Amino acid sequence: MKKIGLLLLGILAVIILGLVVDPEINPSHSSPYLVLKTEREAPAPGPEELVQRVILYGDAGHSSTDPWQASLAKIAERASIDPGKTAVIALGDNIYYRGYPEKEDGEAEFDQGQLESISYLDAQLQIARVSGAPMFLVPGNHDWYASELEGQGQHIAAYAKEHQVNTSLQPWRSGQLPLPRSVQLPGVSLVFLDSEWMMHASEEHYDSAMTALDTEIERIRSVSPDQLILVSAHHPMETMGQHAGYLSNFSYWFFIKIIYSIFDVDQDIDHPTYMRFINSIDEIFSKSRRIIYAAGHEHSLQVFGSPDGKAPEYKLVSGAGNTSKLSGVWHTANTRFALSQEGFMELQITASGVHISIYDIHNDAPVAAFWLDI
Q1: What is the CATH number of the domain that holds 236?
Q2: Which pTM was predicted?
Q3: Domain contains 249
Q4: What is the predicted pLDDT for the residue at 264?
Q5: Number of domains in the chain
Q6: Which of 92, 109, 153, 174 has the largest count of CB atoms under 10 Å?
Q7: Inter-axis angle of helices 112-131 and 70-79, to 10 degrees?
Q8: What is the domain range of residue 225?
Q9: Which residues on adjacent β-strands are paired with residue 335?
């Protein structure tokens, strides 16, 4: 009762602030913000130079199939250029709001609302079917609100079998702990984390996950000392969006903070549970080199460089898979790029470097493109 009372008091305060004050903390980058340091703006590699392309998007779990969500259609178009050298990674929150549904007791079929939720996932899986490129999906917090991933993992596996495509939920395996796993591609090792599970795991399982991550990175380094490592998860290590306390609207910020503080929600980067996760993986990464960390969760597009040159040399946030979910974004001294528009990121890996292109749905050409210093 006390929490409900506090919640009602908070909502009342928000309404009053919304009517009377409602100031802006900072404007959001609705047009591209680009500040490069050691990165180079030079032409993208030609087809003959390309070793591997990786397309990154996230938080598209409310996407339509008809008409096809604009960002997903554009991703499929990009992946179709050379599917044999392309991988697509979905960075979590694959189904809003509560993950893959369960059939009601005694029901043989899903109801209409449940089928609609599943259609949000199918809209994304269609990328693999249209393009022929392999596709990997990692889970986010909304996927875990279903309390388990079995339904989603089995649905993706069944879709892959039915349509003869290479797509999977990573690092999920039925009946196993979702410990970090890797997939080796030409020029890049993909490492997948289930960050939501890791953040809420028991101490024993948390330690096992971190040991597995450390061991896997050491194994990759022992086999391929100069191999690029791309770690994909849902939760970003760095952000200047709403999960770092930034919102352009003060009333909304106040409302979010009231809700999160009352119910101890740990989806913001300053929460102790979240910070423990960041500090743990940062310590593991810092022992290596040539690591890029990619995440969603924040509904914007952001690129951060390393302030000290240590791994991960770049932290990417690509969670702008749906216009209806976009949130405000600002910048820090580490920011190389920031944009609040529906879109995605594309890494082109060559023998000599890594080129990044950032696309939105309003322009055919990338809104920013440059060579990473890695």
Answers
A1: 3.60.21.10
A2: 0.92
A3: no
A4: 63
A5: 1
A6: 92
A7: 30
A8: 27-101+108-244+264-371
A9: 304
